[in-house]
Amino acid sequence: MGYVKKNRDFHEARWDEPFIMEMGNPGERGILAPKASEEVKKLSGSLEELIPANLRRKKAPKLPELSQMQVLRHYMRLSQETIGTDINIDIGLGTCTMKYSPKVHEQLVRMEKFQELHPCQDESTVQGILEIMYQDEQYLKAISGMDRVSLKPAGGSQAIFANVQTIRAYFEEKGEGDQRNEIITTILSHPANPGTAATLGYKVITLYPDENGLPDIEALKAAVSEHTAALMITNPEDTGIYNDRIRQFVDIVHEAGGLCVYDQANLNGVFGLTRAKDAGFDMCHYNLHKSFSSPHGCQGPGAGAQCVSEKLAKYVASPTVEFDGKKYYLNDNRPDSIGRLRAFYGVPSVLIRAYAYIRSLGADGMKQIAELSILNNNYLIKKLLETKGLSMPFAKGRFRMEQARLSWRELTEETGVTTDDICRRIVDYGFQDYFTSHHPRVLPEPFTPEPVETYSKDDMDEYVAAFAAIADEAYTDPELVKGAPYKAALGARIQEECLTDWSRFATTWRAYKKHMNRPEEQEK
Amino acid sequence: MEKTFVHPYMPNSVPEVKRLLLDELGIKAVSDIYESIIPGELLYKERLNLPEPILSEYELKKHVAGILNQNISTEEYASFLGAGCYKHQIPAVCDEINTRGEFLTAYCGDTYSDHGKMQAIFEYTSMMGELLDADVVSYTTYDAGQSVCSSFRMAVRIHDGAGRRKSVILVPDTMNPDIYDQAVSYCRNVSSLKKVRHVKETGLMDLEELEALLMKGDVAAVFYENPSYLGFFETQAEQIAELAHEYGAICIAQPQVSSLGIIESPMNLGADIVCGDIQPLGMHLQYGGGQAGFIASHQKLEYMEQFPTYMYGIAETEKEDTYGWGRAMNYRCSHGSRENANEYFGTETGLWGITAGVYLASMGPQGMYELGETIVQNLQYLIRRLDEIEGVKANPFGGSNFQEVVVDFNASGKRVADINAALLKHRIFGGKDLSREFTELGQCALYCVSELTSQDEMDKLVSAVARILKEG
Amino acid sequence: MTKVGLIVNPVAGIGGKVGLKGSDGEETQKKAFELGAVPESGKKAAIALRILKSEKDFVKIITCPGEMGENVCKEAGMDCEVISVPDESKRTGRDTTSDDTVRAAREFLNMGAELILFAGGDGTARDIMDAVGTSVPVLGIPAGCKIHSGVYALNPKKGGELAVRFVQGKVLRLKEAEVMDIDEEQFCKGIVCSRLYGYLKIPEEIRMVQNRKSGSVYSEEGAIERISDYLADTWDGEALYIVGGGSTTASIMKRMNLPYTLLGIDLVCAGQVIAADCTEKEILEAIDACASGKVRILVTVIGGQGYLFGRGNQQISAEVLRRVGKENIIAAASPDKMLSFLGKSLYIDTGDEEVNRYLTGYMRVIVGYGEYVVMKVSD
Fold it and tell me: Phi/psi of residue B284, each to 5°?
């Protein structure tokens, strides 16, 4: 009971699996597909007659030829060489909300009644999925306090993008489209905020943190003007410090005539405690794969929710899901909409999981998520900060929300071991590597843990013990840490130049082979 | 009344354990933390308006499944729907691999800890490289639409990089209308889209108009789909690329990946950037949730620098024959350089990339060939049979098609919507109604088949349509 | 074995302690010693050296005789190789001149030094720059009266630690930093008149950028290129541009296909440089003569302390600033440079309190193509 495993004798699976293009033999088949019936063939004729001669493929693609068991085995091995949240204490990937993804959700999204639905089917045959999408919107309205929620975005960044599109549509309709060409954001906000704003041609004005680690409110006052389209701000930012003046930020921007957009990828720590609406925001977004439990799938598919106030409701992407009292239907007749965002209706599998998740927790359960993720985080930080060489810059002694940005600066200065070294070394202890920081590294040698509510006290204690051990190593045998990892799936250190030198860079096997052959060709 | 309860997803919801954590922090309740940092006027004092929780797993599953069971799937009714989302055979191995918890729940682990993930993704791009005959393949994007949008902006940036200000993108007027709308919105601050009209009889791009538009000198790229959204092959692929190049424009093409076992890749027909969707390669329909995009090009630096997505590069190691992988050259994307990036970027569709890799490894060259062959044969059968019905003109453009075809019901005097409603009673999902998207076509529908469409289903469709029109 | 050259300027900073505003020039030094000044630079260098001693098996120190380095090494217990100097009389330290510094730095370079460590101020930095340019990394231990240049460690201890990391191969990046100096004669008369003299290459203390693989290969040149593109695209052809010195503004001029004065003020109008390396008077005359009446000032942030005005560009005087107006000041700097001022402020020191007050507050600095950072400006 309460056992905390220390010095776990871990070794990740290491299959040294060959590259798939080099496996198998000509003629092997992994799967056979249905063929046209004889009668069909007779009526339709041969392939040569059916496709234009100039478009016919001349050389077959050089795909691998492998039998089924060999394909399966290869990929099973590769999966074993991957550390998913299911098999590790995934506290290190802060800002990613690596919570448990309930397995019952996986059974639900694999029902034939969902998996085999075509998006163009008649509405009468998709009432179930439409109901789920509709209810999701109602729940997210309650959670955000906003008036309309679009579930079309295929990820958090696309939701942010939709917010910027909405900003543009709003001011264009007001006739201020050209005038309001600036978006204000903060250096500690997610890169998608300035990224989406710049994608749509906005000038990006960046605020730096003040000495408390919060965006400088005086700088905001100086930044707003008649050119301000919007403020895109996160609270708390990656530092986990709650910006208690957030309402003032909103008021300053509103006074200048701009809109306020809340990046709530960090929703996990505020469920039921505070809402975007109450802080006066016009829009916010959630990452449904984060706070609402969808597995992250090696970076997607995820889904985003764009939540907007009444005055912006008409702009959200089409179609929306509506209910007329009897049936659910898709509404495409929305002339002010920002239009299409993603093919069809977003990523419905994530929406089903979000639905099931909310239903399994209810209002009190959702609030408990926030409370426990805050509690876990402050417990973890307290324990972690006992580690030599690790510190938490900004707002010392102040509680954090659901995550925190720590710094190994002292350890680096004293031992030369960097956060990137520790990030590799932690793998030897049986954990996924951790998230350092988004670009840029405002704080030196960063480390950003986020111990969400699904991790136990014992999990956290094991995690902390591993860092204490690594810090000891750094002070006694820094080369050990710098040479890590030793027990990861890949046992040999890569040559970094292959990834930083364009002339050696290859995104496909064929390009790599061409690079390899080039010197030989020159010799010839 | 607010209740706290022990929940299986929250180990520290056990009061005794929670107490240990609180004691460690020297506080009585978690509210001591957040009430000390969140201003009172921002604290939400009410209880969220959400339904009461369904606490047992069984009841939860029964509840959600009960809602989903109202749906009728394409396994129950014969489906002739396509329009960007295609039903194909999904190898069981694909489902097995993408449900593996290690892949399913991994995220952004790096070179050493997620070696298997990195290899699987690089294998995906490598196999796509073979299928497309392209040396550079991006990590997956959200969907075809995103890939098309990004390809357009890439083209503008490539010109910019060479000091040329060209901003017009020429597209066929038959292109996927949703993607067209999406691209107009996505690109409008850097480029404008212009439609090139089609030749009325064949549906193909009007090359005279294309050349006239190119002559203006402001064209950054020419885009075409092959097959087109409406199903027919753009047989002038090579001429389009040649014309584009003649006037200094980039040629961008969107092929159907499932056709590439039999059809030449646009890369070999002069295209510079190739983009599209990989949903047909092992992803279930999922009501449109299985879409995922790709972008590919030749190994040219000026192109590679403009990719807005993650790119996975291969790296040699100190050990011979052992490779590692890494996300590289990240300053191209917003994760690497924020607002200075090419475009924005986020969590996209990694799991579908890995799945497409499993699919291509299973299918092999022979499987992809047979897939293409079966589809064109089935489609031809459907065209011939539907065309026999009075009032129906199947394939009004008369050319060769892949998987989809326009079926013209104008002569029948019936609306597609009514025909489709009637077909539902025959347990058939009729082709997609085009009457709103392409008003000039009148009452036309876009019918789609795959290798899974049986002769029996097609025969049933034909007799049902015939009966519906007759009963009219 | 890493070869580290050490130069201690024994007269650095002596003027400051006794109320003189600098220590350059033999007269001043003489006066300082008469006033009872004791050299501080040796003590400061020793602090750094004692830290570097931890690497003594891997470091070979080459230094100058006597108080210019040898004595400090002895005091810190560090072995060293002493270069020979032509005139033995220079051992006392009081008589060293800038020629000795220049000669020593050149000698270190010839001997294959991989790092030159110096204890001194802006005058010493300038001498070393004259001798070695950017051919070898240099690190300053701040010991002078004037430390406006960007080439110093925060303090002697940090300097020692950074040198240790350099020797251990832990310094991952070098960067160019400004060498600034004040015109001593003017300064002693109470007129601040500092100039940007050029650049030295220094080891970077902490990394703001991600490591190469997992993060970005963030290129400072790339950022400055985008800044240049933006300014070129938004350039007002009718306006008179008063372009300050520095490598960032030089890049902008290059992008505009214009000749430039790296360390001085150029005037641009109607696509041409109408005057190069101008004085305040020339600038004021040009403002008067400007037909469109539109005048802009384009500057970058100069030096490690973040001065916008008053260091290295005194030609853009209080009067110039008053006439051009706050709203017509365009400041540009790379994102990396701006990050180094995170939590700090930019500064102005025009010598005119009223103008200083007028310019303080918050200001936008261009950091990319249409991208800005809003920074605090103090006097």
Answer: -65, 160
A295 confidence band (pLDDT: 50, 70, 90): very high
If asked whether residues C299 and C359 sit together in one domain, one would say yes
pLDDT at C147 over 80: no
Q: What angle do CA C155, C158, C162 make, to 5 degrees?
A: 135
Determine the Cα–Cα distance for residues A153 and A305; give it in Å rounded to an integer.
Answer: 6
- What is the rounded distance in angstroms from the CA atom of residue A375 to the CA atom of residue B34? 10
Task: Give the chains touching A; criterion: ≥3 Cβ pairs < 8 Å.
Answer: B, C
Q: Are residues B388 and B251 part of one domain?
A: no
End residue of a domain, out of C178, C203, C228: C203
Q: Which of A7, A385, A312 is nearest to A148 (CA)?
A: A312
Q: pLDDT (tens digit, 9 = 90+) per residue, C317-355?
A: 999 999 999 999 999 998 888 888 888 889 888 888 899
Domain enclosing residue B214, as ranges = 92-360
Distance CA A352, CA B60 (A): 12
Asked if B330 and C368 come within 8 Å (Cβ–Cβ), the reply is no
B156, B220 contact by CB (below 8 A)? yes
How many whole angstroms separate alpha carbon A114 and alpha carbon A122?
14
Q: How far is C238 from chain A (nearest CA, A)?
A: 23
Q: Quick check: A201 and B37 CB within 8 A?
A: no
Task: Give the separation between CA A284 and CA A263, rounded to whole angstroms.
Answer: 6
Q: What is the DSSP string of B167-182?
A: -EEEEETTS-HHHHHH
Of B312, B329, B360, the domain-final residue = B360
- Report B:387-416 residues touching A (Cβ under 8 A): 399-400, 402
User: What's the half-sphere exposure (Cβ side, CA atoms, 13 Å) at B445?
Assistant: 26
Domain total in chain B: 3
Residue A241 dihedral angles phi and psi, to the nearest 5°:
-85, 120
Instruction: Decide: residue C91, CB within 10 A, 0-12 exposed, 13-18 middle, 19+ buried.
Output: middle
- Give the tokens for residue A183: 């978006």
Average pLDDT, chain A: 95
Mutate to test the interface with A, among B142, B180, B316 (most CBs of A within 10 A): B142
Residue B167 near residue B218, CB atoms below 8 Å: yes
Domains of chain A from N-terminus onward: 108-358 (3.40.640.10), 365-482 (3.90.1150.10), 496-524 (no CATH)
In a domain, C215, yes or no: no
How many whole angstroms separate alpha carbon A453 and alpha carbon B92? 34
Provide the number of CB pairs (under 8 Å) joining chain A to chain C: 97
Q: Is B417 in CB contact (< 8 Å) with chain A?
A: no
Average pLDDT, integer, range A72-99: 96
Across the strands, what pairs with B255? B226
Instruction: Give the CB-side neighbour count of residue C30, counting CA atoms within 13 A.
Output: 3
B5 inside domain: no
Give yes or no for B329 touching A (CB within 8 A): yes
Q: Give the tens place of pLDDT for each residue, B85-123.
A: 999 999 999 999 999 999 999 998 999 999 999 999 999
> What is the per-residue DSSP string for C102-167?
HHHHHHHHHTT-SEEEEEE-HHHHHHHHHHHTTSS-EEEEE-SS---SS-B-SSHHHHHHHHHHHH
For B140, residues 6+ apart whose C-beta sits below 8 A from its C-beta are: A300, B278, B292, B293, B294, B309, B348, B349, B350, B352, B353
Q: Looking at the structure, tell me whether residues B309 and B370 fall in a common domain.
A: no
> Based on the domain organization, do C130 and C264 belong to the same domain?
no
Separation of alpha carbons A358 and A353, rounded Å: 9
Candidates C168, C204, C210, partner chain A, best to mutate (most A CBs within 10 A): C210
Say what the pTM is. 0.89
Contacts of B139 (CB under 8 A, 6+ apart): A299, B121, B125, B309, B310, B311, B312, B327, B348, B350, B353
Give the span between the Cα atoms of C192 and C76, in whole angstroms: 37
Q: How many domains does chain C have?
A: 2
Which among A217, A192, A243, A195 has a CA at the least distance from the CA of A395? A243
